[in-house]
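Quick one - inputs below.
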Amino acid sequence: MTVQESAARTRPVPAVEAEGIAKNYGSVTALKPTSFAIPAGSYFVLLGPSGGGKTTTLRMIAGLIRPTGGRVRINGADVTDLPADRRDTSMVFQGAALFPHMTVEQNVAYGLTLRRLPRDRIRSEALEMLKLVGLAGFERRRPHELSGGQQQRVQLARALVLKTSVILLDEPLAALDAQLRRDMCFELKHIQESVGITFVHVTHNQEEAMTVADEIALIADGELVERGTPEHMYETPERRFTAGFIGENTLLDGIIHGHGQEARLVIAEGLEIPLPNAPVGEGRPASVSIKSEDFRLAPEAVDAVSAPVEVVDVFYLGFSTVMHVRLPDGRPATVRSTTGALPTRFRSGDRAVLSWRPEAVRLHLA
Amino acid sequence: MTHDYENPWGYRLKWLYMLTVVGVLMLPVFYTLYISFNYGGFGAAEYEFTWLWYRTLFENQEIRTTLGWTALIAVIVVACTIPLALLAAKFYQRTRFKVPFVFLMLMPLFVPADVTAAALLVYFKNLNTLTESVLGLAMFELSLWTAVIGQITWCLPYAFVVILVTMARFRPEQAEAARTCGANAWQAFWHVEFPQIRAGVFASTAFVAILSFNEYVRTNFLKGGFDTFPTYLVSYMLNTGMTPEVYAMAGLFTVVSMSVVIVVLATTMLRERS
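Output:
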């Protein structure tokens, strides 16, 4: 056994590996050089605002567009120069990607017929996949006879049946209504867990991302901003952008003053947030974020840190209530509370005190 | 969709417009057809139905030969034009210079027929001189092939536009989906895109066949020592005037062209209903 081989034994080969992949269209940059590895068998989500480069990333993994720089590896093999049909990947598109002139079964079987498998084997595998996605009995239908959700299931079956090591999903649920999207999320997750294939899923919807992902990579402005588990991205984001995109956070920018126990972020005259033992020096610009549910709004201070605020808007949502408030210098903050836990029904224009625990404050240096 | 608030005159004018179009465009043609079945021909005192003129037509060996040439040219022109039009439409999808490309493709429609024909004639003459001096063989003598080339320049823009319109409805994600299922570029086109643009290809085939069948100016300049049906008809007419045979020939033209159109329309409608 060579050294390389033993290294390969100890460190599993990632299903997808991007090494400095980049895409430019003339002078326009769709994706700056980006590197990441996706562990085999995981559900990986590329999340971000539209136009940020996530679909470009996915299409480079698929082999539908060629990177202007960097390499793509699938199961360790360099596939950068191979077109989509010669990669060990299959794909689910946003919509309208079923072949309208074929039946559901022919759609699902298409990839297998290209492989020239025996006809009865093709049929049994296609039917098995349709059963897996909950569409047994639909094999003779045409795509236009199916609902949007059913069409996406057929697309999933068409990708699954090929038994590729990676399935790429490009906004697969974006065309569905909210309720259906939620149900399909659970189902996607279940299916991925049961088949164990690596899923790479592109979405701009954070709830969708949180529901299905083992790991989320946040991509914006042609850059991989941050990656981590849904818990990490939500609870302890490192980057300011992450805190602004995921969850419902109040972001405050300021300058660090003081050292050690005395360190604090000065946001405005009279508005300071203590940051004991902040790992940065005096005078550095920094941001903090606080989750809306970590704020407490009450007639008087109820937590260690507090600031007087004016209530601007109150949105009663049943289980929870969202309140937009204004900090002393006019900055907005968002508070979410379970309706039952509110000490009083606030109205717009009320004066109140916003309090939070010091641990709820997350510091972002970039 | 509701028309409840539409001005009734809008509706009446539409009908009037349509009737005018039919009257101006179609009545003379149908009248010619009507005359072609009259024993006495045009201007006869009374109408007497007969197949005689058509029978004379088909008994005329010369005319049968011209019909043969016409059909042969039409088949070759269709067989060359449709693949060329498909290629052009595929190229259009990919090129970044769409407007100049369409302009280039449609140019032959805007150059007068006799100018194109004369230009090609001179061009072929020059090519002949060239190939003769280089290869010792005049490769562009006027023949079936020069007539075919002349007709293709005329038919290609139409076929291109018809195919382009159907192709515009095709969703490129489907071709990508085929690629990710393991199809190469050709398979993705043949299995997924072509079946969906088949109607357009079919329509443009019929269209090109009619255009070729009816083409006179270019063919007359560029044909070899034979006549097609249109060139025969014109020279016959110039020699003999409007004899009953001319009416029958015109009638034959109309019937052939119209039946192609009707077949295309019927198939398209049947396809859409199913």
